[in-house]
Write a structure and sequence with these properties.
The protein contains one helix and eleven strands. By secondary structure, it is an alpha+beta fold. The protein has two domains: about 35 residues; about 130 residues, Immunoglobulin-like (Sandwich), CATH 2.60.40. Strands 1, 3, 4, 5, 6, 7, 8, 9 and 11 form a nine-stranded antiparallel sheet that branches. It has a two-stranded parallel ribbon with strand order 2-10. A hairpin with a 3-residue loop joins strand 3 and strand 4. The relative contact order is 0.19.
């Protein structure tokens, strides 16, 4: 009987250790999905991320997306990201979104503001699901869009975020994606 009691005590201690470890692991990731990405608050604040991507600058000759053409300059971007959450929070940041010399002078040129649009589905659909307000783009090409009431449709297949110069809805200067340096 003593051996049975010892076995039960050891098994109970091991089960408690596993339960504690699992609790710490879930708490560390914040969402229990094991990858540490996504909403750190388990989706309680403005929903889960439905789009979390880097941004790429547009280049002359880039394709048209949803009827929106690439800007007529070879833009460069030091760093850019976009996150869209299911409950309507859009957060977009660009650093160093400029037209390089010799085409430009290493500034955004005549572009002083940006805004962003979400497109869903087939490329033939030219209606944006929503477009953010316009925000200033400084002379270093830095800007941040924080929209807490962005409309996120319940279904958005093949989402595309396009960054527009000076509120021009038919032109983009950055898009979600990446480019090799």
């Amino acid at each position: 009987m003593t051996r049975l009691v010892r076995t039960v005590v050891v098994v109970s201690a091991m089960a408690a250790a596993v339960a504690i470890y699992a609790g710490v692991a879930v708490g560390h990731n914040g969402n229990g999905n094991g990858n540490g990405h996504g909403d750190r608050h388990g989706g309680k604040h403005r929903g889960n991320a439905v789009l979390d991507a880097s941004l790429a600058p547009s280049q002359i000759g880039d394709p048209t997306f949803h009827g929106v053409a690439a800007g007529n300059a070879p833009w460069v971007l030091k760093r850019g990201s976009v996150e869209l959450k299911s409950k309507g929070r859009l957060e977009l940041r660009v650093r160093g979104l400029v037209i390089p010399a010799p085409t430009g002078n290493g500034t955004p040129g005549p572009v002083t503001t940006i805004n962003a649009s979400l497109y869903c589905g087939d490329n033939a659909d030219t209606t944006a699901a929503d477009t953010s307000d316009t925000v200033p783009l400084d002379q270093n090409g830095n800007a941040r869009i924080e929209d807490r009431s962005f409309i996120v449709p319940p279904t958005c297949l093949a989402p595309v975020i396009l960054v527009h110069p000076n509120g021009a809805p038919l032109v983009y200067i950055a898009v979600d994606g990446w480019r090799s340096s």
